[in-house]
């Protein structure tokens, strides 16, 4: 980045080798939150010797430099040679996909590729994280977080997808600090659905509204498991029933964590009929299973049938008050009681696992792999690939007031993120698919998520985007539902068939979305190109750039011309066939 | 020039290919297709091995189905009934299966350790516990891969999953991934609605783009994508897709299997196996009965299972297919002997049963036993690996088969499980 958003850490802009391009002040102005003073500082640095040729770009950001150094250390240790840098087109495509969930438009691509200033990567990242793209950023990360928080297939009486999404869109649009984000989700109270006739809507309640009860038993087991997994990066669900066979997890820890959720109740509201219409998540005094609210305990069963007692104790051993009462004041002024979920949120905030878990998750979002696999299973049994980097980023994120956009900026400007996805002799052995720990010596190619594909098809075809917000999200949901497999268990497990298998290819070959994308009706994308007065080669170039962020090769031009000839002058029809082929290619669907 | 269509073919393929005669790139293989087709026609009815997995998602309570403990605290209300197999008793709510038990065997001494749905599903499908660094292939992918060569003209994917929740191909790659259809055999988006000449032109253009990218050494996902494209084209133009059309069966046959999703799934499995598909998994979910288990079983679940499973086993036997077709019934685990406070049973993996039959298995027997309260296996117990090894043996697949995982490490098929010897004569 060019300058951090905090004045005290603002640093000047300059090129890799001390050359400061005169035009770099222009893009600077569009960087959100940049202090005017940094421009002045920058101008004093003209001509100053700075990093000689060959040095790694770090955009004057110490954290980017830190990432570069740590990743490079890993390469040296394993005798790996990093891939060459990706082309401008490739980098531009991936950073759009990863930050805002779609490929770039031809205009966005051309403006980036045509920019010859040395800071152009930082400028583009700042733009994508800035005001111009705030809606698209929020849309993409709402998709990501919805899946994390409530899964792909949950829309039932207890969980309102629109409610969850509405809250997420707001939180992400204003880049809510991640500690507050967690706290609002973990401590949420209110109504889970946004109905006009009901007061007290709080979309954040949807994280827990469907996780408080299991088969009619209000035990908060799923709430416990998911909170630990998502916000602390630890898997405790197995320890519900027994001590973990291969990590340090103990059964008592599960139930001690579970005890934090026992004041919370997901009340079913019936709206005059016998059908549940919405859930209201409330906190209430918890009498305890031993019926002593001052010592509100819960019981759990050991495998040998013995019962044991548990009070709220955090995973690091910190105990809180055992009282089941919510905070209140006696007539004589004595305060008593405690809000267990509020205490839990406080403890999570100060846990070293909290920033580590989010750094790992976000890193994996951008690189295809985190420092551990899976990203939410820390422990001695699963050591991270880059412990120093993970801890260092976690620390810096905490110092940056949990600003996730800042974390994304560091990651996208790192050297590793800018590498080509090509395998070379020097990095072939760095292959996480083969079970190796990822060393990030090339960009690991991966298929777009179904959501990214959907948005990218809309972008590539300049489809009508008049539908926005929840309307657009519902249309997308409907399309996505064809790929979802529900496992039919209590826990609402699901998986996606959008995994490169035959059903996915059939959808790309013949599905409605691609049919619409390749339609040649008047006024559509293909029609505009076909009748736009361009020469045939320019038409082809436009198709290629729209989908693949590159122009056609001579061989592809030849093949395309043969196709046009074969269709005896039906240019629109030929373009349709070529466009179909481009959209169905590996190069389109893979993030590379 | 690469092509997508260098494959053997059926009727619609020939029709399709005739339209492509003008496309120079594809003319060569076109003649080969027709010849291969002729050569293969004679073998079409050749016997082949196959397996059908009836997957009971959620974890069925096997002590209420196959290993009853009447009159004990843990036993529940169901009574055992005698069956067509000497000395073998099963639940009173499975009267039709009772007439088929001479074709099946119950293993009552399964003992596993995974009582979480996801972990259990993975373990029972693969023989391996989940491992963050390796994705193991499940039954369907392993068996499809080992048996695919016996039906060289097969254009349907060799591993079909009806209704859903299977474990995938892991390191064996998307070639062996489950092909998921619903119980009516519908395959979405099968028709492109353009003429074959034009499809040929599109595919040729697509091949040019694919190959350029693959040529840039981007790793296996680019190649894999092209292989799946080829299979998809094969599928789209295949008249073998008829095998999915379960509703075209005579009404009597549909009634026999039962008018349920699971019933149609079982019938489709028979049709697919008949057509040469080596592995079909049919899913019946909803066994995760933490409360009110006995009414749910007696009123809903067991009648549905009983009708469809007994019809499948009987139908296979009648058609002379059972000697070559293994049928297995299992879930990810079973349920607690202890009946909980809401008249349900919770997750339990320590002592439970699976049912197998057909292929090279000994029939009409039970293997192993559990203690009188069902909490322990008495004597030797068996694991997922052992079961898998036994199923493979009954299909004639060598247990010496070794896969190479993507990390280059050799992996013994079925995780070196030991064959359950009582299942073989």
Explain how this protein is built.
The complex is a heterodimer of chains A (592) and B (425). By secondary structure, chain A is mainly α. Chain A has 4 domains: 1-55 and 96-128, no CATH class; 135-349, no CATH class; 352-446, no CATH class; 450-591, Orthogonal Bundle (serine acetyltransferase, domain 1). Chain A is 44% helix and 6% strand. Chain A contains 25 helices and 11 strands. Chain A has helices at residues 25-29, 36-44, 62-77, 88-100, 106-113, 120-128, 134-150, 161-173, 178-186, 206-209, 221-232, 251-258, 340-350, 353-367, 387-399, 404-412, 450-460, 469-480, 502-510, 512-517, 525-530, 536-548, 554-566, 571-583, 586-589; strands spanning 190-191, 264-269, 278-283, 298-301, 307-310, 328-329, 335-336, 446-447, 484-486, 494-496, 590-591. In chain A, the strands form 5 sheets. A 3-stranded antiparallel β-sheet of chain A has the order 1-3-2, with no helix packed on it. In chain A, strands 4-5 form a two-stranded antiparallel sheet. By secondary structure, chain B is α/β, with parallel strands linked by helices. Chain B has one domain (51-185, 245-423): Alkaline Phosphatase, subunit A, CATH 3.40.720. Chain B starts with 10 loop residues before the first helix and ends in a 13-residue tail after the last strand. The model of chain B is unreliable at 1-45 (pLDDT under 50).
């Amino acid at each position: 980045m060019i300058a951090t958003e905090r004045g005290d850490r603002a640093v000047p802009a300059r090129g890799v080798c001390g050359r400061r391009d005169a035009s770099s002040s222009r893009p600077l102005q569009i960087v959100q939150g940049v202090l005017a003073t940094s421009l002045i500082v920058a101008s004093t640095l003209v001509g100053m010797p700075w990093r000689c040729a060959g040095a790694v770009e770090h955009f004057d950001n110490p954290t980017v430099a830190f990432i570069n150094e740590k990743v490079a250390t890993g390469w040296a240790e394993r005798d790996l040679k990093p891939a060459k840098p990706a082309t401008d087109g490739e980098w531009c495509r991936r950073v759009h996909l990863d930050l805002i969930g779609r490929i770039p438009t031809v205009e966005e691509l051309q403006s980036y590729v045509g920019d010859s200033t040395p800071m152009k990567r930082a400028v583009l990242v700042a733009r994508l994280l800035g005001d111009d793209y705030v809606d698209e950023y929020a849309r993409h990360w709402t998709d990501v977080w919805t899946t994390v928080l409530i899964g792909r297939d949950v829309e039932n009486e207890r969980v309102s997808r629109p409610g969850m999404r509405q809250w997420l869109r707001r939180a992400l649009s204003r880049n809510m600090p991640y500690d507050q984000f967690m706290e609002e989700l973990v401590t949420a109270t209110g109504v889970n659905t946004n109905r006009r006739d009901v007061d007290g809507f709080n979309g954040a309640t949807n994280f827990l509204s469907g996780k408080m009860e299991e088969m009619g038993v209000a035990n908060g087991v799923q709430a416990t498991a998911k909170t630990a997994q998502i916000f602390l990066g630890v898997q405790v669900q197995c320890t519900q029933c027994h001590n973990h066979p291969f990590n340090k997890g103990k059964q008592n820890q599960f139930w001690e964590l579970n005890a934090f959720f026992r004041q919370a109740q997901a009340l079913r509201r019936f709206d005059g009929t016998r059908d549940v219409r919405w859930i209201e998540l409330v906190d209430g005094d918890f009498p305890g299973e031993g019926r002593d609210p001052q010592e509100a305990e819960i019981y759990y069963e050991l495998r040998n049938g013995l019962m044991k007692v548990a009070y709220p104790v955090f995973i690091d051993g910190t105990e809180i008050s055992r009282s089941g009462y919510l905070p209140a004041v006696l007539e004589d002024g004595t305060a008593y009681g405690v809000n267990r979920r509020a205490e839990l949120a406080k403890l999570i905030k100060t846990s070293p696992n909290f920033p580590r878990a989010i750094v790992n998750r976000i890193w994996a979002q951008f690189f295809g792999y985190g420092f551990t696999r899976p990203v939410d299973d820390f422990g001695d049994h699963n050591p991270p690939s880059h412990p120093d980097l993970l801890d260092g980023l976690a620390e810096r994120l905490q110092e940056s007031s949990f600003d996730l956009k800042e974390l994304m900026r560091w990651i996208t400007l790192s050297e590793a993120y800018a590498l080509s996805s090509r395998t070379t002799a020097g990095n072939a052995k760095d292959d996480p698919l083969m079970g190796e720990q990822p060393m990030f010596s090339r960009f690991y190619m991966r298929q777009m998520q179904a959501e990214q594909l959907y948005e990218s098809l809309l972008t590539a075809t300049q489809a009508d985007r008049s539908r926005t917000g929840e309307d657009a999200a519902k249309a997308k949901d409907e399309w996505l539902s064809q790929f979802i497999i529900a496992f039919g268990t209590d826990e609402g497990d699901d998986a996606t068939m959008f995994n490169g298998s035959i059903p996915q290819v059939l959808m790309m070959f013949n599905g409605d979305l691609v049919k619409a994308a390749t339609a040649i009706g008047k006024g559509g994308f293909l029609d505009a190109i076909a009748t736009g007065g361009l020469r045939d080669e320019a038409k082809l170039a436009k198709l290629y750039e729209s989908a693949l962020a590159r122009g056609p090769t001579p061989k592809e031009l030849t093949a395309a011309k043969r196709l046009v000839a074969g269709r005896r002058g039906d240019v629109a029809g030929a373009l349709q066939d070529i466009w179909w082929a481009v959209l169905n290619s590996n190069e389109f669907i893979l993030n590379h | 020039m690469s092509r997508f269509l260098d494959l053997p073919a059926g009727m619609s393929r020939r029709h399709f290919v005739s339209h492509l005669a003008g496309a120079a790139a594809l003319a060569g293989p076109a003649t080969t297709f027709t010849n291969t087709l002729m050569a293969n026609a004679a073998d079409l009815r050749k016997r082949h091995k196959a397996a059908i997995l009836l997957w009971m998602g959620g974890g069925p309570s096997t002590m209420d189905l196959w290993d009853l403990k009447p009159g004990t605290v843990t036993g529940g209300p169901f009574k055992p009934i005698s069956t067509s197999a000497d000395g073998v008793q099963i639940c009173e709510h499975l009267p039709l299966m009772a007439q088929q038990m001479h074709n099946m065997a119950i293993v009552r001494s399964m003992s596993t350790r995974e009582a979480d749905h996801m972990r259990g599903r993975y373990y029972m499908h693969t023989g391996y516990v989940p491992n963050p660094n390796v994705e193991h292939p499940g039954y369907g992918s392993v068996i499809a891969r080992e048996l695919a060569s016996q039906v060289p003209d097969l254009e349907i994917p060799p591993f079909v999953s009806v209704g859903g929740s299977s474990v995938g191909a892991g390191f064996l790659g998307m070639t062996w991934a489950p092909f998921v259809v619903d119980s009516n055999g519908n395959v979405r988006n099968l028709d492109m609605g353009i003429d074959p000449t034009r499809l040929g032109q599109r595919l040729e253009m697509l091949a040019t783009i694919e190959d350029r990218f693959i040529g840039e050494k981007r790793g296996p996902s680019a190649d894999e994508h092209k292989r799946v494209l080829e299979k998809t084209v094969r599928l789209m133009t295949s008249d073998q897709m008829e095998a999915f059309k379960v509703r075209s069966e005579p009404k009597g046959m549909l009634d026999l299997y039962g008018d349920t999703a699971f019933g149609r799934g079982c019938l489709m499995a028979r049709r697919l196996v008949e057509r040469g598909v080596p592995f079909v998994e049919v899913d019946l979910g909803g066994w995760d009965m933490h409360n009110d288990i006995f009414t749910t079983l007696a009123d809903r679940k067991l009648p549905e299972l009983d009708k469809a499973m007994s019809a499948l086993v009987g139908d296979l036997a009648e058609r002379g297919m059972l000697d070559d077709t293994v049928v297995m019934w299992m879930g990810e685990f079973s349920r607690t002997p202890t009946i909980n406070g809401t008249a349900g049973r919770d997750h339990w993996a320590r002592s439970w049963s699976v049912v197998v039959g057909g292929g090279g298995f000994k029939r009409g027997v039970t293997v192993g036993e559990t203690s009188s309260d069902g909490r322990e296996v008495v004597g030797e117990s068996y694991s997922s690996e052992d079961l898998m090894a036994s199923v493979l043996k009954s299909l004639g697949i060598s247990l010496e088969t070794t896969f190479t995982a993507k990390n280059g490490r050799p992996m013994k098929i079925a995780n070196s499980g030991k064959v359950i010897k009582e299942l073989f004569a």
